[in-house]
Design goal:
The protein has 374 residues and is of the alpha/beta class. The chain folds into two domains: 171 residues, 3-Layer(aba) Sandwich (Rossmann fold); 172 residues, 3-Layer(aba) Sandwich (Rossmann fold), CATH 3.40.50. α1 links the parallel β1 and β2.
Amino acid sequence: MSTFLISCGGTGGHLSPGISLAEGLTARGHKVTLLISHKRVDARLIEKYPHFEFIRVPGTGFSWSPLQLLRCFWTQTQGFFFCLRLARSRRPDGIVGFGGFMSAGVAVAGWLLGVPVALHESNHVPGRAVRVLGRLAQRVYLPHGVGLAGVRARCIRHMGMPVRSEIRRLPATTARTALGLDPLQKVLVVFGGSQGAGPLNDFVEARLPVLASEGIQVYCVTGLGKGEAAIREFVTKTGAPVRAVFVPFCDRVAELLSAADLVLARAGAGTIAELIRCATPAILVPYPQAADDHQRANAAFFERQGGGIVVDQSRMDTLQHEVLDVIFNDWLLRIFRGNLQRMDRANSLNLMLADLEELCPPPPDRPAGQPLPA
């Protein structure tokens, strides 16, 4: 079978679909190596997957700050030569990049060595890496309705983000019990992505007494380095106890999203894909400093499809009203869940696997099933 290098580090939004693809490829008998960054979030996310081979690659993200820009060029050059040596030694049949600064070195190395390169863009505004590297790729996977100038139409395939097999809808009672929450009370999950979101954390801190008085439990993922784990107990207007849980990181995404009546989140493509898979309604607050304002485009798509609503960060003063209005509107929540289930009908992972197998067959001198040279 074929062997693949998958570049997917830097953020949870890149690493999670990379792991999903690795799961699918290995299930079909292929061999994979995942390339990740030296960032703390990558180290934390991979702990659940000891059966995969992860290799940390030098590299940092682009910045217009002179010092950071110099550092970016230096580490990306290191990353390129690292990936060139790796590709020469591993002789992959295909290279897949999920965007971000991690994709640059390995994509250029693959292009120079004549290895088929595929890029996946999950956001509704393609990022800088995919825009620049797309011309070198034999395949570019884009969300439906999104185009990319300079890339030949025959190289483009439209599909969503592959989601890890472990992320699926669970019974709400089971999920809430597993997270230490009351199965009978409303649950608001606050989830700023793998790195957290300060304004969402601040909203919870400021509004927690009000939410608790209404009988709403809160489970807030603050982000690594943005808060300590804590449990707080409150009492509702009727005297019933209500709990608020704060954790810096949560790798139990299926339980987290299945437990929620409503999620308050940023609008990263990975978060949206997981909300769709778990059919969990959400209020999205796009990160206004996201590159090319891509989170606003992601959120607009989610809202148009009927998965929830969008609140601009400049209107955080309205957020409490929106949360209370939506979380107690069971009719509206049912509508949102139905729309999310409709959005999840296409299996993006299977489509991507079939296309990669056609694009990256093993060479004729290595029959299917024969191990790769050491």
